[in-house]
Each structure stands twice: as C-alpha cells, then as structure tokens.
Amino acid sequence: MKLSRVLPLGFFLVVTLHSLAVADLNSDRQALLSFAATVPHYRFLNWNPASSICDSWVGVTCNLDGSRVVALRLPGVGLMGPIPPNSLGKLDALRVLSLRSNVLIGNLPTDVTSLPSLHSLYLQHNNLTGNIPTSFSAQLNVLDLSFNNFTGNIPQTLSNLSQLTSLNLQNNTLNGPIPDLNRLTHLNLSYNHLNGSIPSYLRSFPDSSFAGNPLLCGLPLNPCANPQPSPAPASSFPPPAAGPHKKRSKLKLSKGIIIAIAVGGFALLFIFALIVICCCLKKKDNGGGSSVLKGKAVSGGRGEKPKEEFGSGVQEPEKNKLVFFEGCSYNFDLEDLLRASAEVLGKGSYGTAYKAVLEESTTVVVKRLKEVVVGKREFEQQMEIVGRVGQHPNVVPLRAYYYSKDEKLLVYDYISAGSLNVLLHGSRGVGRSPLDWESRIKIALGIAKGVAHLHSVGGTKFSHGNIKSSNVLMIAENEGSICDFGLAPLMNVPMTPSRSVGYRAPEAIETRKHSHKSDVYSFGVLILEMLTGKAPMQSPGRDDMVDLPRWVQSVVREEWTAEVFDVELMRYQNIEEEMVQMLQIGMACVAKVADMRPSMEEVVRMIEEIRQSDSENRPSSEENKSNVQTP
Ligand SMILES: *[C@@H]1O[C@H](CO)[C@@H](O)[C@H](O)[C@H]1NC(C)=O
Ligand SMILES: *[C@@H]1O[C@H](CO)[C@@H](O)[C@H](O)[C@H]1NC(C)=O
Ligand SMILES: *[C@@H]1O[C@H](CO)[C@@H](O)[C@H](O)[C@H]1NC(C)=O
Ligand SMILES: *[C@@H]1O[C@H](CO)[C@@H](O)[C@H](O)[C@H]1NC(C)=O
Ligand SMILES: *[C@@H]1O[C@H](CO)[C@@H](O)[C@H](O)[C@H]1NC(C)=O
Ligand SMILES: *[C@@H]1O[C@H](CO)[C@@H](O)[C@H](O)[C@H]1NC(C)=O
User: Which InterPro entries does this entry report, sorted A to Z (predicted)?
Assistant: First the structure.
C-alpha cells in the first residue's frame, strides 16, 4: 500500500505567524495537523495549514467567534490505525467528536474520552480494541462505541455521568455486569457477552437493547433462574413493588408498536394512493379505478366500456375550444377526447386525473380541475406560462387545455413508468431493488434543473407550487421529470392535512402563496426524503408526527447523522461524504427563513459540485478496496 499517495498533507508543517493572536486556535490547529499526519486516511482532507481552519477545513467546526474548534466530524474518511494519544486529546474545547465508520484500531486513549467539554462521542463502526476508558467528561451526553471490538467490563463510572442520555455499545465483546445506569433515553448493549441481571432502571427498554447476551437475565429478557433478585414465583406474576409500573411500560410499548403498525399501514395506504394520484400516474391494471369511474359515469355509460366523465361540463357550442400548445404533435379535437375511453387514474389535490385512450391508440392524461377560483382571462394567462415553461427534459409539458364555466381540463402526455414516490417507498422488503445512491443523486440533479428552468423561464412570479415525490415522474432510468406545476394560484385548495403539507414551506402554509423560495423549501424536503427514505409527515420512528425537516435537524444537531440516512443506502461503500454534502444542501433548502434559502440555480450548482469533488477526490474503487481491506 502506498501511503504516500493517500497522505496529501505534508508532514513538516510550519505554523503560520499571522494568527498568533489566537493562540488557542493555533494549538487546536497543531493538534489536528499532528493527528492527520500520524493517522493515514484515504480520503483527501483539505487541511491546508495556510487556510482558515474554521472556514475551510473539512470536518472542522469552530465556535461562533472562531476562537476554538468545538466539533470534529470525519465519518468514513478511511482513517487507519490507532488514535495517537496527545493529539485529539489536546482539543480541549471539543464538544463533538465523530470518527465513526473508519478503520481505527487499538485502544481508545483516555485523553479523548475525558476531554472536559466533550458532549458527544461517536466512534461506532471501527475496529477499536481493549478496555473502554474509565475516565469521562462530566458533560458526556452521547456515547457510541458500537460495532468495535472492545473487551472487558462496561465502566462503572458511566453511572456517575449525570448528562448521559444515549449509550450504544452493541456488537463488541464486553463482559461482566451492566452498571446501574439511569436517566438514559437510548440504550443498546446487544451482542456482547454481558452477564447477570438487568438493573431495574433499564427494564423499560426493549429486549432488542439487550439481545445477543445469552447470560443476561431479567426483564425485558427471560427472568433470572437464580431466585436471589426477586421471589421465584415472580416469573409469571410481576413482583408487587416494581410490577405495576413495569407492566404499564410494557403495555405502553406494545401500544406504541400498534400505533406504529397502524401509522405504517396508513402510510402504505397513502403511498398507494399517491401512486395513483395527480397527473403523474402509473398504469393501473386492475378494475379498482374503473369502478370508481362507473359510480360517477351513470349518465353516459351503459356498463360496458367505462366512458369518460370529464366532459360532462362541456357546453355544446364550445366543443372545439381545446387549446393546444406549440410544438405539440397531437391532432385530436375535443370531441375525440370526449369520445375516448377513460379510466380514473386518481384524485389529487387539484382534481381527478384520467387516462384517456383515443383512436389510433394515442394515450393522454386528462386532468379535470375542481375548485378553480380565477376567471377565464387569468386562467388563460397562467396556462400560457405553464405551456411556455414546459420545454425542458426534466419538466412534463402541458399539451393542451380547455376552459369553460363548468369544466376545466388539462391534457398531458401519458407516462407509464411510476413516480419517484413509488421507487422510494413502494413495497420495501423482499424482492425489491432499492434505488441506489447514484440514481438518487442523478434524479435529484435532474429535478433541480427542471425546477430551476421553471423559475428562470416562468419569471419571478411563477413557481411550481406543488413539488413532491409523487409529482416526479420517471421518464427514463435515473431520470425524473417534474409535473403538476403552476396550478396552485388558480385553485382554492383547502388546507386539509394531505401528503403535500409535509412539503410546504412555513410561509406558504401561512399565506397560501407560493414563491421560488417556497419551491426551494419543498425541493429541500424532497432531498431529505431521498436521503432518509422517509416520507414527509410520516412518523419517523420514536417521535410521533414530527415533520421531516425538523426531525432531520434535531437528529443532526445531536450528531446522530448516521441514523438519518435510509437503511437502503447503508449497503453502499464510500458514499457517506456525498450523503453528508447532500444533507447539507437539503438542510440549507429547508431553512425556516425564506431569504436564507439558496436559489434553485445555486442548488443545481451545489449538487453538481458533489459530483465533481467526487470524481476528483474519490480514489478509484480498486484503490479504495486495497486500502480498506488491508489496514
Ligand atoms: C480487526 O482487528 C483484528 C485484529 O486486530 C483483525 O483480526 C480483524 O480482521 C479486524 N477487523 C476488521 C473489520 O478490520
Ligand atoms: C474482533 O477481534 C477478533 C480477534 O482479534 C477478530 O477475529 C474479529 O474479527 C474482530 N471483530 C471485528 C468486528 O473486527
Ligand atoms: C461517583 O461519584 C461519587 C461522588 O461523587 C463517588 O463517591 C463515587 O466513587 C463515584 N463512583 C464511580 C464509580 O466513579
Ligand atoms: C452484530 O452482531 C450480531 C450477532 O453476532 C450479528 O448478527 C450482526 O451481523 C452484527 N452486526 C454487524 C454490523 O456486525
Ligand atoms: C459474569 O461472568 C464473570 C466472568 O466473565 C464471572 O466471574 C461472574 O461471576 C459472572 N457473573 C454472573 C452474575 O454470572
Ligand atoms: C440494538 O442493536 C442491534 C444490533 O445492531 C439491533 O438489531 C437492535 O435493533 C438495536 N436495538 C435498539 C433498541 O436500538
């Protein structure tokens, strides 16, 4: 292995003199440089001693006045070998340290765990060995040493940490008893060699917090065979003292599970509905849709072939007023359209969509708008823009429209492949080929370009107004196209708690007005959805009904970044840095204050930069492998 190739930093570094004023920052800088010089890493770190450590060094975060380093996050950069003592241990203002998913080996130096301000320590997924140090920062809040090779006991000193709320030690080789830990909200000790009985404080955690420790006993696992801890008959009836409480927390838990299942079920139903809804639809093969149609199409149909019902409001003298846009190759007229056989594709927030098959097997989507609140002129003006902005590969064009007092119809191309929503959330589990990271990044870039095009061609007053994953249609592999734009200002859409609400910017919910910046917000939610695999407004695990941006923000603030990402993405190698960059773009887009959000053009550039830095920095996969596999 050629370490010289993977060590971009010089070994002999001269501290620059211009920054003598900030002596502490200089000592932080030296500690970091000595760390980078001693620990080989295959991912490039731009830690140039001449550049500003607070503004440009990858993974380094300073406090507000730029006088100290308070966080160091280097997940998945291929750090190899032991953590040298007297390096990171000198960053004595450090609050967050994350070196997870590297190839670190050897002991964990005590000077790291006892850094006085250390709040969160993430070292999971390394190959650290030896005992866990016994001396810790009194501030320690999160300790994650899971998926390493630590041996020995869990230090008793952990029980003295009043701030500790989250402890992850799963998949190590720890033995001995569990210390008396309380105040924890998150605990995982599974897959170790722990023994003895589970302390009473910890009995409300699920059994998966303790699984894989065959010698552990007591709730929530099997009762201890040894009658010492509690009277023997307690095996089937809970002991009186701790009993009722314990039972209740068990009960609560199972309620939680039921709710989770119910929510999950509903989410699935919603997703299924989403598949069908709006302009963007997947072909529906069974008769479910047509039965909806039949119910409504009594007047026209004779029960054989389901007939259209979207023309019922068309006035006789107006029959040929279908307005086509330039460049459209369709040559049917309104009557042809009304004669076509139609099938309900779904009901969206703006109305019902039909798949209409005309003669000569032309298939189009007809969307029947309800609750249009503007007059004919305004409608036509908006349609003119909607038609004009459709000339982009990542935008689904409007082909034609019809307006009368009682009927408003829009005609789009029929796209048979599914929506992004289906790709992301459709039937997870067996037999599903998950959307890989490459594809997600490509789709995101395409949609960003499409929306940027809408903004630049449509002008400052024109926005999409309804960006969501079910409005991203797949037009080719890894290529999405955005639909359903420019309709929001025409409609009186009630603010029912629908799926789209999770995508709405706070100011758009308040004022019911959409803007470029509110589109950027919705696009940010879409990015977060692609990164987390979670649909907006879906209950993300523990906390009920938190919206996606807020959930992601809270998780990232606590440096749980790894938990944010879609488990389906975790199988791919070397994408962490890119995912983190994408996460940052998504979070910038969902800034609460509209002016803080980037423009869509900037978003496109930022996503493109991920790809560029990727091809520059990422070693070839071969090189990667040889470096990772042979530390
Ligand atoms: C971890 O280190 C041990 C010995 O130090 C070695 O046998 C093992 O293969 C390493 N595991 C990984 C995943 O690097
Ligand atoms: C832990 O160490 C043992 C022996 O040193 C080794 O066989 C095993 O692969 C290590 N486990 C991990 C996850 O590195
Ligand atoms: C916990 O703190 C108390 C008082 O501060 C001390 O007496 C005790 O020895 C500590 N226990 C451990 C395991 O450090
Ligand atoms: C954790 O340990 C369990 C039991 O040994 C094993 O099934 C699981 O694959 C481990 N997880 C990882 C990521 O090593
Ligand atoms: C736990 O295991 C250790 C050896 O690893 C043994 O000395 C101790 O007695 C065991 N404790 C219990 C309660 O089984
Ligand atoms: C604990 O970790 C194991 C192994 O990774 C996992 O299967 C289990 O779901 C986790 N339990 C909790 C409560 O986090």
Answer: At_inactive_RLKs, Kinase-like_dom_sf, Leu-rich_rpt, LRR_dom_sf, LRR_N_plant-typ, Prot_kinase_dom, Protein_kinase_ATP_BS
